[in-house]
Amino acid sequence: MTELLPNFVAGRWQAGTGAGTALFDPVLGTELVRVDATGLDLPAAFAFAREQGGAALRALSYRERGALLAAAVKVLQANRDAYYEIATANSGTVKNDSAVDIDGGIYTLSTYAKLGETLGDKRFLVDGDAAKLSKDGLFQSEHLLAPTQGVALFINAFNFPSWGLWEKAGPALLSGVPVIVKPATATAWLTQRMVKDVVDAGILPPGALSVICGSSAGLLDQLQSFDVVSFTGSAETAAVIRSHPAIVQRSVRVNIEADSLNSALLLPDHPPGSEAFELLVKEVAREMTQKSGQKCTAIRRVLVPEALYGAAAEAISARLAKTSVGNPRNEAVRMGALVSRAQLAAVREGLATLKTQTEVLHDGATHALVDADPAVACCVGPTLLGTRNPDAAHLVHDVEVFGPVATLLPYRDLAHALALVQRGQGSLVASVYGSQPAELAHAAFKLAAWHGRVHLVSPDVAALHTGHGNVMPQSLHGGPGRAGGGEELGGVRALNFYHRRAAIQGSSAVLAALAG
Known about the structure:
- This protein has 516 residues and is an alpha/beta fold.
- The protein has 2 domains: 42-258 and 488-515, Aldehyde Dehydrogenase, Chain A, domain 1; 262-474, Aldehyde Dehydrogenase, Chain A, domain 2, CATH 3.40.309.
- The chain is 35% helix and 23% strand.
- Strands 16-18-19-14-13-20-21 form a 7-stranded mixed sheet, with helices on both faces. Strands 10-9-8-11-12 form a 5-stranded parallel sheet, with helices on both faces. A 3-stranded mixed sheet has the order 1-5-4.
- Helix 3 (80-90) packs antiparallel against helix 6.
- It is globular.
């Protein structure tokens, strides 16, 4: 039997008592390791993190906690080669796609390490200026943010086992809140290994960082009023979490990132050959194929003026046709696998659904797999769909295929384009391509209420922009409506989720002493 990965809870490594669930190589089909959380004493695990880890972290200043994160970054950087090997084997990603997850996670953690230095030796944050409550100004009110006296539970998705951990854990640990992470089972190996390296280095106080691999059964039952939970995954699971007694009855704070039908919009008057047109085509193809389209921020709907529908279809298809698909160990391969057979089945089912209301503009089935057995490998070529009647094709605005699939949609005018984007019912990100600052600004304002992030691409930033789907720690990640209504990152804003705001009322002298 393959190795059973231990969990780290209550300050020690503990193996589950069951046989465990196998993790597989999605290209070769071989069993890699097993994970299991059966028999863990969850009440003790949460109590240890809450009481021991939380107290130790809160005894430190933001600067000191930032230094701990910086030390963790060094450990992670020293072990990058091992992480890349795990990603290739367990996620089936090519090197560049592994970098998005691994190096992106380390970069995000380093960003919050540096933020700790700027926040200094304080143990709480001040929110805004003091307000006078008396005519002479002697009695005042000031709002402060204090670290919540609980634990942060992370239930993460399969597509980003590294970044999904550190983009949440960085702000939580910097805030002084201990972390228990439950990675998605299919790709839990990388998360577990990264936690193990940091824990074994002895950087963090006991109880500050825990990992549970396997079933999530019973985790939500352990939550108390001052704990927080952050979930990334399907809308169906999000609904179950929101209805749990911990959230409904004990008011546990919850952050959700769910489904998202993200859009890319080419503004009018940018014909083929224009810089804006070419930038859109390049970005759509990249977003469709990066991590085999398994990104919550990937482009799912592409909107172009009606007159450009054919030209856009041809240009995007031409780029997709050059994408080699197969075994990520082969240097000729540019797109690897989906993470599992279950995910492969889901993508095929979603494609079949969308095809009932669309035409196939580029067929992923035309991509012969490189160095991979089609009967075993969880690989699928990129598919571009399209419809000339986007108003009637309601499925393209309702069904997200979590793989290398996007749909091309023509629009009559900008008002029509914006209405089509809004039919996504709230998304993580929309990108807009144009050349006139005023037009881009207008579109950004119109789209802002429907998205967590609006990414504007013009020729002057062609070589500078960070990408439609790349989540930068300095910018907000999350989205309204269908996208879950959550908010993560955004620089120092990420710390708000892990703090409690209180109004402190007293004399100006008392408030000055508090600030000091």
